[in-house]
Design brief:
Layout: H1 3-9, E1 13-18, H2 27-41, E2 45-50, E3 61-63, E4 66-72, E5 75-82, H3 85-95, E6 99-104, H4 111-117, E7 123-128, H5 135-147, H6 149-152, E8 157-160, H7 163-173, E9 178-179, H8 186-205, E10 210-214, H9 223-236, E11 244-248, H10 254-261, E12 268-272, H11 279-284, E13 288-291, H12 301-309, E14 313-317, H13 320-325, E15 333-334, H14 341-354, H15 356-367, H16 370-373, H17 375-394
Parallel strand pairs: 1-2, 1-6, 2-3, 6-7, 7-8, 8-9, 10-11, 10-13, 11-12, 13-14, 14-15
Antiparallel strand pairs: 4-5
Helix pairs in contact: 1-17, 2-17, 5-7, 9-10, 9-14
């Protein structure tokens, strides 16, 4: 085998480039850590060139920037304000990277500087993760795209985690992309559920039909909408005897959701933040998991985590990212931006418990989705793109 063929086939030295921190585990962090662990298991050397990180969850983390917290697209995120060129240069010189994999959209103050200083022989890949929540976010993305136009020309291959994210990349950066979904580690999720054990899952389930919401208590995630649906279901007498709910997570709307829930007769537990390793057991305890996000979702990784953990049925807000993840399964998607939404959602929840054949069919379709999103399937596609990017560099 020639040295050129070896370079194209790997193993490679891969650097994930991400402006935000690895101190928290939001969607993009989960993406790169899940993929990074699988690539490492396959023999690649993986490092992480990231924003301000004080408690790295893995080895090979290079904290290259000082960050500040901002609000964007309905999320709180940390963006770099200072990334010294010397530190970036040292990491790139010592890393000898075959591939730099940039998470996009990216800041010109850190990831943009990494791209501009990359060795000419290093393949550059970018993955787009975002779906705008409205015109202002889309306008901001276009402005950022213009700012990053020069550095983006250095990128060899572009990926998007969904068709929604691909549209964003095309609109804001003027680039076409290959859709490769977010990965979930099926084996790790199932192993975590098994470690928790049946007794823990039974305790979390409790007596009677159990519904679970897991997510941030912010407007676009729809926790308040779900409580309104529970209120409407009570008014209409839709829910079965013993029906009870767990709503896990934290956020700005948690206090108001708790206050709203006090007026209801349905028992609703608010356990607060749930550790990553404890999520599969909670989701496995759900006869029904509901995620009524109103928008701003480029993908639906939490839906897949719930399915993989063993939730009976997953219902999701009908936004483009969740619709893409569930492959347009209308019966599992609920309209979320209409005045009648609480009633529609309440009736859909009730049907899960009253129509077992219908619910069983949804469950079967959802379990059938998992292999396409497993990290082993996704990593095969990522390796393909890496090989193409390396080849692009070799023939230049």
């Amino acid at each position: 085998m020639s040295r050129q063929t070896e370079a194209i086939k790997g193993p490679w030295r891969v650097g994930f480039v991400f402006d935000d921190t690895l101190d928290v585990l939001d969607g993009v962090q989960q993406h790169i850590l899940t993929l990074g662990r699988e690539l490492t298991a396959r023999g690649h050397r993986v490092e992480y060139l990231v924003g301000q990180t004080t408690d790295p969850p893995v080895s090979g983390v290079h904290s290259l920037a000082r960050n500040i917290m901002v609000s964007f697209n309905g999320n709180r995120m940390r963006v770099p304000i200072h990334a010294p060129a010397r530190g970036i240069r040292q990491v790139l010189d010592s890393g000898h990277f075959d591939i730099l994999h940039v998470q996009a959209p990216y800041s010109p103050l850190m990831a943009g500087r990494v791209i501009n200083r990359a060795h000419p022989g290093t393949g550059l890949v970018a993955t787009y993760h975002i779906a705008p929540t409205g015109p202002m976010q889309l306008f901001g993305g276009r402005v950022l795209g213009r700012i990053n136009h020069h550095s983006h020309r250095r990128i060899d291959r572009v990926i998007a985690v969904s068709t929604v994210a691909a549209d964003y990349a095309r609109t804001t950066a003027g680039v076409d992309s290959r859709v490769i979904p977010n990965p979930i580690d099926l084996q790790a999720i199932r192993a975590s559920r098994e470690r928790a054990g049946g007794a823990t899952i039974d305790r979390l389930h409790g007596r009677g039909p159990h519904m679970v919401f897991l997510g941030r208590f912010v407007e676009r995630k729809g926790a308040d909408l779900l409580i309104s649906a529970i209120e409407e279901g009570e008014r209409l007498g839709l829910f079965p005897e013993g029906f009870h709910v767990t709503m896990a997570g934290k956020g700005a709307l948690l206090a108001s959701c708790r206050q709203h829930a006090r007026d209801l007769s349905t028992p609703i537990d608010f356990p607060g933040f749930v550790k990553e390793e404890d999520k599969p057991a909670l989701l496995a305890s759900a006869d029904l998991a509901v995620f009524p996000s109103t928008g701003g979702e480029s993908f639906g990784i939490v839906l897949l985590e719930a399915i993989a953990s063993g939730a009976g049925v997953v219902l999701a807000g009908d936004n483009p990212g969740y619709r893409s993840t569930l492959l347009d399964d209308d019966q599992a998607l609920v309209v979320v931006n209409a005045p009648q939404t609480p009633t529609i959602l309440a009736r859909r929840i009730a049907r899960v418990f009253s129509d077992t054949d219908w619910a069983g069919a949804i469950h079967g379709r959802q379990v059938g989705l998992l292999d396409r999103y497993d990290v082993r399937t996704v990593a095969n596609q990522i390796e393909e793109v890496y090989g193409q990017a390396v080849e692009d560099r070799l023939i230049m």
